[in-house]
Amino acid sequence: MSSPRKQVILGAYLGGVNHHTAWWDPRAGSQIDFSSFEHTARTAERGRFDFFFLAEGLILRERAGRIFDQDVIGRPDTFTVLASLAAVTEHLGLAGTINTTFNEPYELARQFASLDHLSGGRAAWNVVTSFDAFTGQNFRRGGFLDPADRYTRAEETLNAVRALWDSWDAEDIVADRAAGRFLARPDAGEFAFRGSQFDISGRFTVPRSPQGRPVVLQAGVSPQGRAFAAANADAIFSPYGKLPEAAEFYRDIKSRAIAAGRAADDIKILPSASFVLGDTQAEAIEKYHTIRNEQVTGQTALILLEQIWNRDLSGYDPEGPVPAIDPDPDAPPIIQGRAFLHQDRFATAARLRQVAEAKKLTLREAVIDQFERGPLVGTPARIADQITEFVADDGSDGFILGSHLVPWGLDEFVDQVVPLLQDRGVLRAEYTGVTLRDNLGLPNVRSASVPAKS
């Protein structure tokens, strides 16, 4: 008897804080109206996706002191959007990106536990950090953190939040049947947490939520980030969309999780991916090149390179060669508010020059070639094969999918690719779990949750 095929985890995200969104397309809708969030979430649920993911920016990004003209201004608050989506979906997980640097453990624990209750056990927290004074100027704390301390604070924040979630047990709520109500035990919700970042104690006001603990997501590429995610996260966003580097990252994170005393399957690896569908492979490739050429304008290419060079490159021709000068990491940042994804500026710049020379690419073409994380391009059958094979080969446990067309782009994937994944036996035909943890195949922590209603 053959073993069951590895199941594919699918998440959906709604773009809007980068150049990937085709806001100029006449078919594009609003990126801040609730109708766009609702349509994307309902479509993902129709496709039996595991969760909807919402990124968040805490400040309007700048280049040389001027706001990026490609960013969405006015993105609604994460918790407000996710709580609203809980009312219009039934099974879809709801994942929000919330910063540990500028939020207190008590409020984070309360907000996510509340979302978990309101959604019936579908909440997830993407844990992120920040250290720069540019972002910090919007907050009381400012950018006080040394970069080396950001994971210290993030880990203490997460540990404190979990201590608050765990301050309630199932037996802390006692049913008073005669009075027709539930009563809390006298010591329910009591907590105390002390560390280098926090010294807090009190009583947590939200009873144990349906999942026991909401799902924790994280992204980390550096050794410190990988270690933090492997020890703490239920899922980690991978930056690798191509084999074999994706498989190496997969093995590394799983081995780190085992070293931290966890099972390898206790953490899921999920790269983000875009997709372009066509009736033939040639048509899909042509559409992909058209979209990428529209997304990466000359101005966009220069801005993306300025993140690496940390120099004003506006005098360079996007259709000319990659700059021969070296980056200047010690200069004041020319780009503010964007996460820096490249660990070594000099090595990254050298690689871009080498690729451009070897492939005879212009600056803009080199950016298109090197900044794409492995798009899914082809016929519906080919993309279904790509996803199935990539997951089966342990490149990941699934994908976080987004479309360049907001909010309608995901419909095409759900209508044409999802049925093929279901036919291949790698994607559920119906939801079988009660909570997001159930659907993701994560360890069950509901044994300490609130008693089920009778």
Automatic annotation (TrEMBL):
<dbReference type="InterPro" id="IPR011251">
    <property type="entry name" value="Luciferase-like_dom"/>
</dbReference>
<keyword id="KW-0288">FMN</keyword>
<feature type="binding site">
    <location>
        <position position="222"/>
    </location>
    <ligand>
        <name>FMN</name>
    </ligand>
</feature>
<keyword id="KW-0503">Monooxygenase</keyword>
<comment type="similarity">
    <text>Belongs to the NtaA/SnaA/DszA monooxygenase family.</text>
</comment>
<protein>
    <submittedName>
        <fullName>Putative monooxygenase MoxC</fullName>
        <ecNumber>1.14.-.-</ecNumber>
    </submittedName>
</protein>
<dbReference type="Pfam" id="PF00296">
    <property type="entry name" value="Bac_luciferase"/>
</dbReference>
<dbReference type="InterPro" id="IPR016215">
    <property type="entry name" value="NTA_MOA"/>
</dbReference>
<dbReference type="InterPro" id="IPR036661">
    <property type="entry name" value="Luciferase-like_sf"/>
</dbReference>
<keyword id="KW-0285">Flavoprotein</keyword>
<keyword id="KW-0560">Oxidoreductase</keyword>
<dbReference type="GO" id="GO:0016705">
    <property type="term" value="F:oxidoreductase activity, acting on paired donors, with incorporation or reduction of molecular oxygen"/>
</dbReference>
<feature type="binding site">
    <location>
        <position position="97"/>
    </location>
    <ligand>
        <name>FMN</name>
    </ligand>
</feature>
<feature type="binding site">
    <location>
        <position position="151"/>
    </location>
    <ligand>
        <name>FMN</name>
    </ligand>
</feature>
<dbReference type="GO" id="GO:0004497">
    <property type="term" value="F:monooxygenase activity"/>
</dbReference>
<dbReference type="InterPro" id="IPR051260">
    <property type="entry name" value="Diverse_substr_monoxygenases"/>
</dbReference>
<feature type="domain" description="Luciferase-like">
    <location>
        <begin position="31"/>
        <end position="392"/>
    </location>
</feature>
